[in-house]
Design goal:
This protein has two helices and nine strands. The protein is an alpha+beta fold and 138 residues long. Bound molecules: adenosine-5'-triphosphate.
Length: 138
């Protein structure tokens, strides 16, 4: 059996998970990265996206993260996220409503650059949540 490492995902509001896992894939701002037990230590920022991991039974799971930081050590990965939800905790209707709001804001011609960028990122968060929530079997 593969050596395990501890994955911890924390937000300012809650401890999302603390689990022994075989492998973690996460959305680094410089690109997606994977961590196995024994990895060289590194620190990176995260963009909105999905953390994929395999738990100690080999089951694949997904967590949405809206961005933050990740520290990898040989025996653990810690993710400090702005917000994060396990796939089964994502409220699909809420994400669809957020997508609709963001699309309306993007369509407003009078939006300045900052509100346009914020709406774009909100739309991206909503799309990722919807895609993850609609993933079956994980
Ligand atoms: P919304 O406009 O619906 O609040 P958002 O992308 O602005 O969406 P965030 O700022 O990323 O939301 O998160 C705020 C809080 O709401 C966090 O605790 C996050 O986990 C939770 N949250 C946001 N959207 C969802 C969702 N679709 N399902 C479950 N929790 C959500």
């Amino acid at each position: 059996m593969a050596e395990l490492l501890k994955l911890e995902v924390v937000t300012p509001e809650q401890y999302v998970i603390s689990e022994d896992v075989e492998i973690v894939m996460a959305p680094g701002t410089l690109g997606e990265f994977g961590v196995l037990s024994g990895h060289t230590p590194f620190l990176t920022s995260l963009k909105p996206g999905r953390i994929n991991y395999k738990d100690s039974t080999g089951k694949e799971k997904i967590i949405f993260v809206s961005g933050g930081f990740s520290e990898a050590l040989p025996d653990r990965v810690t993710v400090l996220a702005e917000s994060a939800e396990r796939r089964r905790d994502i409220d699909l209707d809420r994400a669809r409503a957020a997508l609709e709001r963001a699309q309306k804001r993007l369509a407003q011609e009078k939006s300045d650059n900052i509100s346009f960028e914020r709406a774009k990122i909100a739309m991206y968060r909503a799309i990722e949540r919807i895609k993850i929530a609609e993933t079956r079997g994980l």
